[in-house]
Design brief:
The chain is α/β, with parallel strands linked by helices. 47% of the residues lie in helices and 12% in strands. It has helices at residues 2-10, 14-42, 57-61, 71-82, 93-104, 125-131, 151-157; strands at 88-91, 113-116, 138-140, 159-163, 166-170. It has a 5-stranded mixed beta sheet with strand order 2-1-3-5-4. Helix 4 (71-82) packs across helix 5. The chain starts with a helix and ends with a strand.
Length: 172
């Protein structure tokens, strides 16, 4: 509708209509590309979104067709592969969903118990971990952002040891 109105108002021919159509089609992706490239060079996080390993937040959130983002799957695959047998892996929503998909749909590492961190908030993540006892090794899928895992309370009660992307809780 807008292109037709422009064409009538400025009375340009087929070439002008083609230029208008091309500019309307190419302007959004070029703008997204320029914004993300500038943010990358300046080291700016324009989204403020939760960081996820293997995902560039600026490119992800400023590129509308998000198909093809393999970061969450790659991380979930690596996390499950790194877990010792019978481990407990606590994950926030962003990580829990791909972990759960790999386990339930693709039957990857069913011996690892994947726990949704937000379900533990009422009891307290630290209290829930303490109830697991010393026989079970407990891991956090990541320690960022700290609030998702009630990390202040967890750190006050347990030691943390880096385990690839995950964090193992020591002294459970």
């Amino acid at each position: 509708m807008g292109a037709l109105r422009c064409r009538r108002r400025w009375r340009f021919g087929a070439v002008g209509a083609g230029v208008l159509a091309a500019s309307l089609t190419l302007t959004p992706p070029l703008t997204y590309g320029l914004v993300t490239a500038a943010a990358e060079r300046l080291g700016l996080d324009l989204t403020g979104a939760r960081p996820l390993p293997y995902r560039d937040n600026n490119r992800y959130f400023f590129f509308p067709p998000k198909n093809g983002d393999r970061g969450a799957r790659r991380l979930a695959t690596e996390l499950l592969a790194a877990m010792p047998p019978g481990a407990v892996l606590i994950a926030d929503y962003t990580l829990w969903r791909p972990l759960l998909f790999l386990q339930r749909v693709e039957r990857v590492r069913p011996d690892v118990e994947v726990v949704f961190a937000e379900r533990l908030w009422g009891e307290g993540v630290d209290r829930w971990i303490a109830r697991q006892g010393p026989a079970r090794r407990v891991f956090l899928a990541t320690d960022r952002p700290p609030a998702y895992y009630q990390l202040e309370r967890v750190r006050a009660r347990f030691g943390l040891r880096r385990w690839g992307w995950a964090v193992e809780l020591v002294g459970c």
